[in-house]
Amino acid sequence: MALLTVGSEFPQFSKTAVVSLEKGKEFETLTNTFNNDNGQWTVMFWWPKDFTFVCPTEIAEFNAAYEEFRDRDTTLIGASTDSEFVHAAWRRDHDDLRGLKFPMLADTSKSLAEDLGILEANEKIAYRATFIVDPQNIVRWVSVYDLSVGRNVDEVIRVLDALQTDELCPCNWQKGEETLVV
To answer: Which residue positions are annotated as catalytic (predicted)?
Structure first.
């Protein structure tokens, strides 16, 4: 399937996610219908595999910026095609992942990754993809990296800020700077 791109409606989903390490409260079912009701944006970022090397650096960096996303009325969701049990084990095992403030979505059927067009052909794992979705469930930004290269969380926040202005933002625009007047 082709990469889901800007202007497309983000697919509906219902998936299990790891939301805690507290016994009996580890898992919840996550859907994307909640954002339509409360005016939230969504940033969903995907990584290829748990228990790898580049992935935890990105996940930890998104977690460090969690309040930045919250301040922007944005729900942050991490995802991969690993199971919720693997996610939970990785969180318990990795020092940088124990205190995650956002859910780790488990797309074990790979159906959402396939609908998004980010499923790598050979291993059937997700590419490093990031989607910014507006409160109307429309994709406003997509970024896809090769499996070996980590993304820049500051750039995700910069683009989110620009999109939320609903104005024309020049190259390298940063929050607080003037937008373009036509």
So the answer is: 55 (cysteine sulfenic acid (-soh) intermediate)
130, with CB counted inside 10 A (0-12, 13-18, 19+), is buried
SS3 164: helix
**Cα–Cα distance for residue pair 23/117, rounded to 1 Å:** 35
Sheet with 104-106: list strands edge to edge: 27-31, 14-18, 104-106, 74-80, 41-46, 128-133, 139-145
Specify the pLDDT at position 35.
Answer: 56
Determine the Cα–Cα distance for residues 122 and 72; give it in Å rounded to an integer: 37
158 in Cβ contact with 65 (< 8 Å) = no
The low-confidence residues of the chain, meaning pLDDT below 50, are none
Q: What is the value of pTM for the model shown?
A: 0.93
Catalytic residue annotation: 55
CA atoms within 13 A on the CB side of 165: 18
Sign of the torsion formed by the C-alpha atoms of 99, 100, 103 and 106: negative
